[in-house]
Amino acid sequence: MAKILHRRFDLLLTVTTVLVLFSMVPVSNSVPFLLFHGIGDKCSGGVGNFTQLLSNLSGSSGSCLEIGIGELDSWFMPLKKQASVACEKVKEMKELSQGYNIVAQSQGNLVARGLIEFCDNAPPVFNYVSLGGPHAGIAAIPKCDSGPICAIAEAMMKLEIYNDFVQDHIAPSGYVKIPGEMSKYLKHSKYLPKLNNERPYERNSTFKDRFASLHNLVLVMFEDDTTLIPKETSWFGYYPDDGFDTLLSTQQTKLYREDWIGLKTLDDAGKVKYVSVSGDHLNIADEDVVKYVVPYLKQSNL
């Protein structure tokens, strides 16, 4: 997936660093947050600047949670293991023991959701802001534009996406969901079917209960997204099982109607915010950050 670029955030970061000194919300009394970066990225550089920007704007302490070796492991560590690593790290962070909020970018959303659903004896997550998350899967192999590492991964996925070796070694293979190949997907995909409670005889009510316990779920879709196919996967919308002829809205999917993960429960309670912003994948404008992200980092129960 595309490398995250935050070209406009440096100046705003400097300004907000000054402004936060006059904030009426003390950091020590606020709810901390974690940021999960996307594929092909790492917590330093632009992602680190974005994390600091969110902290300055919200008055809340925040950090980017790195899984393994950043860019490399975002491609080659299977998502199940990434979620497990995140689980153990979070439980060791004493500052999160009373609960925290999450902001996640792109593939990082699937790690964040794995943490929420799978992690036993973990502190609660209050608000969860998803930026361009492939929640219902992607129907095409993500484009590669960040050098030889992702080129190798892309070549392996093109051989056979539901091959056990690929599933065990290429992270995004765990959420590629090809319409018309549902039997292969449900049998061989090793991450998304579990995360979305898609297998009829393996549905786990604990996963659903944990996800449904969120105070707020903010789903941000990028209107000009060329990375996620379809872009509506950011809202849990997707194609029907048998092909690409139509696109199902969130509310038309079985995942929503049968409430496999608690999304309908959250929506019925008014806790889901479906947000559409202009721009390509993860190219979020400063004003949209202020409007749609920052408010959910200021307190736990907006």
From TrEMBL:
Keywords: Hydrolase. The keyword Cell membrane does not apply. InterPro entries: AB_hydrolase_fold. GO terms for molecular function: thiolester hydrolase activity. The keyword Hydrolase applies. PANTHER family: ALPHA_BETA-HYDROLASES SUPERFAMILY PROTEIN (PTHR11247:SF50), PALMITOYL-PROTEIN THIOESTERASE/DOLICHYLDIPHOSPHATASE 1 (PTHR11247). This is Palmitoyl protein thioesterase family protein. It comes from Arabis nemorensis. The lineage of its organism: Eukaryota, Viridiplantae, Streptophyta, Embryophyta, Tracheophyta.
